[in-house]
Structures are given as C-alpha cells and as structure tokens.
C-alpha cells in the first residue's frame, strides 16, 4: 500500500530488509550500465560490431521492460524511517546517469562527498563539464540545507568558476552559513587535490507548509 | 594525424563525410544505451532476470572495450570547419548521459533548444532535478556566449528557481544581454508550456589568449 503526501513523497510499506535486498540486486545492473555508458563513448570497434552490440542492448531493454513502473521512480519511504530515491539523477543507485554521489554528514553540519568522474562527465577537453559541477553542487547543497530533517527547496544558486575541474578524483564540501526565518544560506565547493575549482552559494527555502508543520510539533 | 592546440581542441584530419558516417553508425548505439538507462531505473522484473540482463550488459561492455580510446573523447575539428565532441555530457551524440541537447542559433543571437526529459533526470518526485536544469542552462549559455565563433569560459552563473520543472517537454532560451571588454553577460531560462521555471544569468570570459588572437586577425 502506498500514498503520496503533500510533498510528493510516497509511503511504501516494504520493510527495510527487503528494500536493502532489492537495492543489492539492482545496484550491480546499474553499475554495469554505467560501465556501458563509458564504453559506448570510448569504443573504436568496427561498424558491424557496433551494430551487433546495439542489437544486444535493444534485446536487454526489451527484457527489462516486460515489467516496469509506469513513470519515474519518485522518492519512497517506509514506517521505519528508511527512504530511497533509486532514480535520482545525482544519488540514485539505479540511475546510470548518477555517479552516484554518496554524501556524508558529520555532526558539525558539514556535508562531504568524494567521487571519481570519467569520460561521461566531460565538457572542455579533459575537464569536467561546468554544468556537471553545478549538478553535483546543487544536490550536495540541498542535502546540506535540509540536514536530513528539514524540507527545503532551492531558491537561488550562484557558482563561481575559479579554474577548470579535471576529470578524476574530486572532493565536495558544503555547510550551512546562516539561517534567517525560512531561508537557509549554504556555501559549498568542488575541487581536486590542489583545492577548490568551483565555489557556490545558495539560498534554500523551507516551504510554508513545512515550516507550519514544524511549529506544531 | 592530430595535435592539440592551446585551447585543448584536437585537429583531426578525418574528412567531414567520414565524421558524419561514423556518427551515424554510433548514434543509434548511444540511443539504445539511453533507453537502457531508463529501463534499468523503471524495471520490476524478477531478481534472476535482473542478474541475467546484467551478465548480457557486461558481455556487451567487453566487446566494445576490445578497441577504445585511452581516455575521454575531447573535442575534435577538421580543416573543413566541422567540429565534434561526441562525449560531451550535454550535447554528445555518443554519451548516453546527454539528452542530448540540440541547440539552434537564430540570426538575432538567440539560442533555443527543445528537449524531453524522462525518469533519468528526476530529482523531487515527478520533477526535473534542479541540478539538471543548471547543467543544461550552463551549456546553452556557454554556447550563447561563444556564438559559435568566440572562445569563452564560464565565470559566474546564477540560477533563480521560480517553481518545480516538470519532467516531459521543456524549452530553453538564451541571449547575450551585453558585452563589456572580455566579459559577455548572458541571460537564459528553462520552462514548460506555462512559462519559465528557472531563470539564469551568467558572466562568460573571453580568455586573454583568445582576445589577443582576435585582435591580430
């Protein structure tokens, strides 16, 4: 049984054990698809081989589509406090577009993430696409603002590009700068071993319905 | 024969006809992989079937990796003025992460793009990930600033989120607001049939070496 609440999240009564088990089976498939995205970009095999592999992929798609949800995956949670957003474009375990980012929250409120970006995230030659740094920072900052407790929506987001971000190992870091009423101000950066390449600040808004909910707690 | 110039672009002496032919063979493979990314997110087939499809995908990856470029694809161009960036995260025809965006430039300097985003681009339930709108706007604005002629790098980028961006058919639009010395100011938006959902402005910088090059022309 499931229903959607005001925020569009869906309560789903699957026990946490079963959520973890399903995730464990499907994550390696998504990892294989991530590898395929990279191989598709970099391959130089002959045309006939490209066409043969294409036919294999189309057959695999048909097998997976025998049974599927009618639209996007959304965000689900159960009564035990476990939530999962398998299709999320940044952190979704089952989404081959997502690196996926794994975000750690330390008790002081700082959120960090380490990620390795390959050929699929390229913009300028050898560098991460500037929009990809914005994509990852937007997500990290949203999670920093909400701190796993509060509901927030992005208000504004400003990115300052200091230098090119090389493909490879990268580090992201975000923290709450200050809060004013329903506004949460977050600062963050992404960078390599030599320091930040892109710095960002954002204003995140606690929706009125969520703020009202908090007051009644 | 190929070599890299100051901007990291690579001159490649493949004739345009052959570039087009190779692109035509490899594009349908990338389209099949895009479809697979979506099917992987949405499938509900039994665990054994998931594992069987995973094995098929791993075999396909091995076939493609028999011959491949050692790293990312970069940006190439030939002596006929044709350039191609097959691996680009937003417009790369061979990159299954890219929708890919197709950008039109009208003579007045306005750049537009129409795109349909599905389950793989989800953030909040049923909505496009805010960072994905930033990813697409960053690219459109960069191309608007460079106007297919000038080299520019992103300086700063500010996004204002007006309301959620629904998954489905979307329209992007960008134009140069003004230019000051080596700075190009660009404004842009993404939205649905009801109007803009996210508005953006950005400052793009013409690198000194490129500005110097232009003066000597």
From TrEMBL, chains A, B:
Protein name: Acyl-coenzyme A thioesterase THEM4
UniProt GO MF annotations: hydrolase activity
Entry similarity comment: Belongs to the THEM4/THEM5 thioesterase family.
CDD domains referenced in this protein's UniProt entry, alphabetically: PaaI_thioesterase
UniProt xrefs under InterPro entries: HotDog_dom_sf (IPR029069), THEM4/THEM5_acyl-CoA_thioest (IPR052365), Thioestr_dom (IPR006683)
Biological process, per Gene Ontology: apoptotic process; fatty acid metabolic process
Catalytic activity reported: dodecanoyl-CoA + H2O = dodecanoate + CoA + H(+); (9Z)-octadecenoyl-CoA + H2O = (9Z)-octadecenoate + CoA + H(+); hexadecanoyl-CoA + H2O = hexadecanoate + CoA + H(+); (5Z,8Z,11Z,14Z)-eicosatetraenoyl-CoA + H2O = (5Z,8Z,11Z,14Z)-eicosatetraenoate + CoA + H(+)
EC number: 3.1.2.2
Transcription among keywords: no
Compartment(s) where it occurs, according to its Swiss-Prot or TrEMBL record: Cell projection, Ruffle membrane; Cytoplasm; Mitochondrion inner membrane; Mitochondrion intermembrane space
GO terms for cellular component: mitochondrial inner membrane; mitochondrial intermembrane space; ruffle membrane
Organism name: freshwater metagenome
Alphabetically ordered keywords of this record: Apoptosis, Cell membrane, Cell projection, Cytoplasm, Fatty acid metabolism, Hydrolase, Lipid metabolism, Membrane, Mitochondrion, Mitochondrion inner membrane, Transit peptide
Domain Thioesterase: 126-197
Topology with respect to the bilayer: Peripheral membrane protein
Enzyme kind, highest EC tier: hydrolase
Gene3D superfamilies to which the protein is assigned, alphabetical: Hotdog Thioesterase
Coarse class of the protein's main subcellular location: membrane
